Amino acid sequence: MHQVQIFIPCFVDQLYPETGLNMVRILERLGCIVHYNPKQTCCGQPAFNAGYKDDAKKVAIKFLDDFNEDYYIVAPSGSCTGYVRNSFDEMFADSSEAQRSKKVKSYIYEFTEFLTDILKVDNLGAVFNAKATYHDACGALRECGIKAGPRKLLEHVQGLELFEMKECETCCGFGGTFAIKYETISVAMAQTKVQSALATGAEYIISTDVSCMMHLQGYIDKQGLPIQTIHIADVLAKGLFD
Hints:
With about 240 residues, this protein is of the alpha/beta class. It is built from 13 helices and eight strands.
């Protein structure tokens, strides 16, 4: 039986709370003892990526304080998971927090990664009658090395037809403040991604990261296109709790 601390990223907390709840439901269904620290806040990634590294370090120290148990940390976000793994060492190099940072880094997992690599699960018994394609979010793919696991989980969802799109590994164009600073480029990248997904005949774009989903759904809604975004935790919960 695994003890698990859950980290709920900002976008999930504020805009996609059901995704966080579905992650918890699935972990508990699989026998995990789930812990939630209500004092948790941001991991500090937005400040770090915008160049405010001193501010990001303060938030990162709070993260270390909030997740100080010797339990797995599971998050429905490859972006936040990848940031903690790859940037905390830089911030805390040669500091008194270095050891705590290394420990947290070794404990944190993106949700699907935890299912496939730690729990060794690929079939949850989910049922979702739909056509879908999978978007490799940059954080999950490039920072965490997550590629096959989510697809393996989705292949076992009853009723789900999964089609690979040509631009599956191409960035969606969000990139945090990139979407604000370079709006025209960001929108063009979203267009490329969505058109590639539509070409498969998919009704849904599935991803590990709600930041990508938010960006793509904004473009989809603006253009009135016949496709939706959905987080993989919500797909894996289909037919289990509804």
